[in-house]
Amino acid sequence: MRRRGNFFGCRFAEICIVSAMMGALMIALMILVPAPAIAVVPDHPMLQYDPQRTGNVPGIAPGTGTLLWQSHDGTSGCIQSGPVVYGDKVFISTWFSFGENATDGLYCLDKWTGEEIWNNTGVSGASTAAIADGRLFLGTHNGYLASIDAVTGEILWR
After folding, report:
1. DSSP 3-state helix, strand, coil percentages of the chain (rounded to 5)?
2. Can you tell me the distance from the alpha carbon of 35 to that of 129, in angstroms, rounded to the nearest whole number?
3. What is the pLDDT of residues 87-126, one digit of tens each?
4. Contacts for 54 with CB less than 8 Å, ≥ 6 apart
5. Cα-based angle 44, 49, 53 (whole degrees, multiple of 5)
């Protein structure tokens, strides 16, 4: 069952992988939230693209790229931090899911197909993960720093 809700301004979160020119991969992170009707194109990089933190890039196409895949966590969860690409994997942390289908956690997806490789609902990130030596390091919403094995999704310590 695909549920979408509205919790603290988060309508739903979705991640899209777009094929850009020359075969390189671009990641477009879309978080749809209420924002003023005025479209602002900043002249410097900002978290979630604009001053309203919408995550949307109004009226600007990603070159001539085509959509390779997109993934939705199936709940009302938000993607507050950026995805991490490591090898053939994309790591995404979700939070603010609620109800019987809540799926706050860390997800590992195949970079080329978008298929879920593993998920760990024992951690949900407040920050973009760092990765080194096959381990993810993630600041959590409950104030911990966690280390997660990038291959298995197992929490190594927190």
Report:
1. 0, 40, 60
2. 27
3. 999 888 877 655 555 567 888 988 888 888 998 888 877 7
4. 31, 32, 33, 35, 48
5. 125
Q: Which domains does the chain have, with CATH numbers?
A: 12-157 (2.40.128.630)
* Neighbouring residues of 95: CB distance < 8 A, sequence distance ≥ 6: 77, 78, 80, 104, 124, 125, 126, 141
Radius of gyration of the chain (CA): 16
Task: Tell me the torsion sign for CA atoms 142, 54, 113, 100.
Answer: positive
Beta bridge partners of 31: 13
**Sign of the C-alpha dihedral, residues 15, 20, 24, 26?**
negative
Please state, in angstroms and rounded to a whole number, the distance separating the CA atoms of residues 71 and 52.
Answer: 24
Helix (H) or strand (E) holding 97: none
Q: Are 84 and 125 in contact (CB under 8 A)?
A: no
Q: pLDDT tens digits for 42-60?
A: 455 555 555 655 554 444 4
